[in-house]
Design a protein that fits this description.
two-stranded parallel ribbon, alpha+beta, 14% strand, 4 strands, 168 residues, two-stranded antiparallel sheet
Amino acid sequence: KQWYQRRVAITAGRSAVVYPGEWAIAREDVEDDERLMGEIERTFGSDLKDQVIHLCNRSNDYLSKLPQKLLVQIASFLSLEDVIAMAHCSKAFRRCCLTDNLWRNIFLQHHKQITPEIEQLAAEHTWRKIFFTDKLRLQMLVSRQRSQMKQVVPIPMNGKEEIAVAEP
Protein backbone atom coordinates (compact mmCIF):
# COMPACT_ATOMS: atom_id res chain seq x y z
CA LYS A 1 0.00 0.00 0.00
CA GLN A 2 1.08 3.49 -0.71
CA TRP A 3 0.47 6.14 1.90
CA TYR A 4 0.14 9.81 1.06
CA GLN A 5 -0.80 12.98 2.85
CA ARG A 6 -3.35 15.45 1.61
CA ARG A 7 -4.37 18.74 3.18
CA VAL A 8 -7.81 20.19 2.73
CA ALA A 9 -8.43 23.82 3.60
CA ILE A 10 -12.07 24.80 4.02
CA THR A 11 -12.21 28.58 3.81
CA ALA A 12 -14.84 31.29 4.16
CA GLY A 13 -14.26 32.34 0.57
CA ARG A 14 -12.08 31.44 -2.39
CA SER A 15 -8.45 31.08 -1.38
CA ALA A 16 -5.87 32.77 -3.57
CA VAL A 17 -2.97 30.53 -2.56
CA VAL A 18 -3.24 26.76 -3.05
CA TYR A 19 -0.12 24.70 -2.45
CA PRO A 20 0.68 21.43 -4.28
CA GLY A 21 -1.30 18.51 -2.85
CA GLU A 22 -3.75 20.85 -1.16
CA TRP A 23 -7.43 21.44 -1.84
CA ALA A 24 -8.88 24.83 -1.05
CA ILE A 25 -12.66 24.81 -1.04
CA ALA A 26 -15.15 27.46 0.00
CA ARG A 27 -17.37 26.46 2.92
CA GLU A 28 -20.52 26.72 0.76
CA ASP A 29 -19.12 24.31 -1.86
CA VAL A 30 -18.00 21.49 0.46
CA GLU A 31 -21.23 19.49 0.37
CA ASP A 32 -21.43 19.73 -3.43
CA ASP A 33 -17.86 18.50 -4.00
CA GLU A 34 -18.38 14.76 -4.54
CA ARG A 35 -14.66 14.05 -4.80
CA LEU A 36 -13.95 15.63 -1.40
CA MET A 37 -16.98 14.00 0.27
CA GLY A 38 -15.94 10.60 -1.10
CA GLU A 39 -12.37 11.13 0.09
CA ILE A 40 -13.51 12.15 3.60
CA GLU A 41 -15.91 9.21 3.84
CA ARG A 42 -13.33 6.66 2.65
CA THR A 43 -10.65 8.01 4.98
CA PHE A 44 -12.61 8.90 8.14
CA GLY A 45 -16.05 7.33 7.79
CA SER A 46 -19.57 8.60 7.27
CA ASP A 47 -19.93 10.02 10.81
CA LEU A 48 -17.11 12.50 10.33
CA LYS A 49 -18.40 13.33 6.84
CA ASP A 50 -21.77 14.25 8.40
CA GLN A 51 -20.03 16.39 11.03
CA VAL A 52 -18.08 18.24 8.32
CA ILE A 53 -21.32 18.92 6.43
CA HIS A 54 -23.02 20.20 9.61
CA LEU A 55 -20.06 22.44 10.43
CA CYS A 56 -19.97 23.85 6.91
CA ASN A 57 -23.72 24.49 6.97
CA ARG A 58 -23.33 26.03 10.43
CA SER A 59 -26.07 23.76 11.75
CA ASN A 60 -24.15 21.96 14.48
CA ASP A 61 -26.00 22.23 17.78
CA TYR A 62 -23.65 22.30 20.75
CA LEU A 63 -26.21 23.48 23.32
CA SER A 64 -28.36 20.36 23.10
CA LYS A 65 -25.26 18.25 23.86
CA LEU A 66 -24.81 19.92 27.25
CA PRO A 67 -25.84 17.98 30.37
CA GLN A 68 -29.51 18.34 31.34
CA LYS A 69 -28.65 19.89 34.71
CA LEU A 70 -26.62 22.66 33.04
CA LEU A 71 -29.35 23.33 30.46
CA VAL A 72 -31.89 23.69 33.28
CA GLN A 73 -29.59 26.14 35.06
CA ILE A 74 -29.19 28.20 31.87
CA ALA A 75 -32.94 28.12 31.14
CA SER A 76 -33.65 29.36 34.68
CA PHE A 77 -32.25 32.75 33.69
CA LEU A 78 -34.55 33.11 30.67
CA SER A 79 -37.87 34.91 30.62
CA LEU A 80 -41.02 32.81 30.58
CA GLU A 81 -41.61 33.60 26.89
CA ASP A 82 -38.07 32.51 26.05
CA VAL A 83 -38.47 29.23 27.95
CA ILE A 84 -41.63 28.48 25.97
CA ALA A 85 -39.86 29.39 22.70
CA MET A 86 -36.87 27.25 23.70
CA ALA A 87 -39.15 24.23 24.13
CA HIS A 88 -40.03 24.48 20.43
CA CYS A 89 -36.40 24.37 19.23
CA SER A 90 -35.51 20.70 19.64
CA LYS A 91 -36.40 17.53 21.51
CA ALA A 92 -33.51 18.03 23.94
CA PHE A 93 -34.68 21.56 24.74
CA ARG A 94 -38.26 20.37 25.12
CA ARG A 95 -37.19 17.75 27.66
CA CYS A 96 -35.24 20.45 29.48
CA CYS A 97 -38.18 22.85 29.49
CA LEU A 98 -40.54 20.25 30.92
CA THR A 99 -38.38 19.26 33.90
CA ASP A 100 -39.69 19.88 37.38
CA ASN A 101 -36.38 21.44 38.46
CA LEU A 102 -36.73 24.24 35.91
CA TRP A 103 -40.34 25.01 36.85
CA ARG A 104 -39.48 24.90 40.56
CA ASN A 105 -36.79 27.55 39.90
CA ILE A 106 -39.23 29.64 37.86
CA PHE A 107 -41.90 29.32 40.58
CA LEU A 108 -39.35 30.43 43.20
CA GLN A 109 -38.38 33.48 41.10
CA HIS A 110 -42.00 34.61 40.89
CA HIS A 111 -43.26 33.67 44.36
CA LYS A 112 -40.10 34.11 46.49
CA GLN A 113 -40.95 31.27 48.91
CA ILE A 114 -42.20 27.71 48.78
CA THR A 115 -44.30 26.37 51.62
CA PRO A 116 -44.41 22.68 52.54
CA GLU A 117 -48.02 22.55 51.29
CA ILE A 118 -46.91 23.82 47.88
CA GLU A 119 -44.06 21.27 47.86
CA GLN A 120 -46.57 18.48 48.48
CA LEU A 121 -48.92 19.78 45.78
CA ALA A 122 -46.02 19.88 43.33
CA ALA A 123 -45.16 16.29 44.21
CA GLU A 124 -48.76 15.28 43.43
CA HIS A 125 -48.99 17.34 40.25
CA THR A 126 -46.00 19.07 38.59
CA TRP A 127 -44.22 22.34 39.26
CA ARG A 128 -45.25 23.54 35.82
CA LYS A 129 -48.92 22.96 36.62
CA ILE A 130 -48.51 24.64 40.01
CA PHE A 131 -46.81 27.65 38.37
CA PHE A 132 -49.61 28.17 35.85
CA THR A 133 -52.34 27.73 38.47
CA ASP A 134 -53.64 31.15 39.48
CA LYS A 135 -53.22 32.26 43.10
CA LEU A 136 -56.87 31.81 44.05
CA ARG A 137 -56.99 28.25 42.73
CA LEU A 138 -53.66 27.53 44.42
CA GLN A 139 -54.99 28.76 47.77
CA MET A 140 -58.03 26.55 47.31
CA LEU A 141 -55.85 23.51 46.59
CA VAL A 142 -53.72 24.23 49.67
CA SER A 143 -56.78 24.53 51.92
CA ARG A 144 -58.21 21.32 50.45
CA GLN A 145 -54.91 19.60 51.13
CA ARG A 146 -54.91 20.87 54.72
CA SER A 147 -58.42 19.52 55.25
CA GLN A 148 -57.35 16.13 53.89
CA MET A 149 -54.44 16.08 56.33
CA LYS A 150 -56.85 16.16 59.28
CA GLN A 151 -56.72 12.89 61.13
CA VAL A 152 -59.62 10.83 62.37
CA VAL A 153 -59.11 10.21 66.09
CA PRO A 154 -61.43 7.95 68.16
CA ILE A 155 -62.72 9.68 71.29
CA PRO A 156 -64.66 7.61 73.86
CA MET A 157 -67.94 9.21 74.98
CA ASN A 158 -70.66 7.74 77.24
CA GLY A 159 -69.03 4.32 77.24
CA LYS A 160 -69.28 4.14 73.43
CA GLU A 161 -66.46 4.91 71.04
CA GLU A 162 -67.30 7.85 68.81
CA ILE A 163 -65.20 9.31 66.06
CA ALA A 164 -64.24 12.94 66.08
CA VAL A 165 -62.00 14.90 63.73
CA ALA A 166 -59.00 16.57 65.29
CA GLU A 167 -56.22 18.69 63.79
CA PRO A 168 -52.77 17.06 63.91
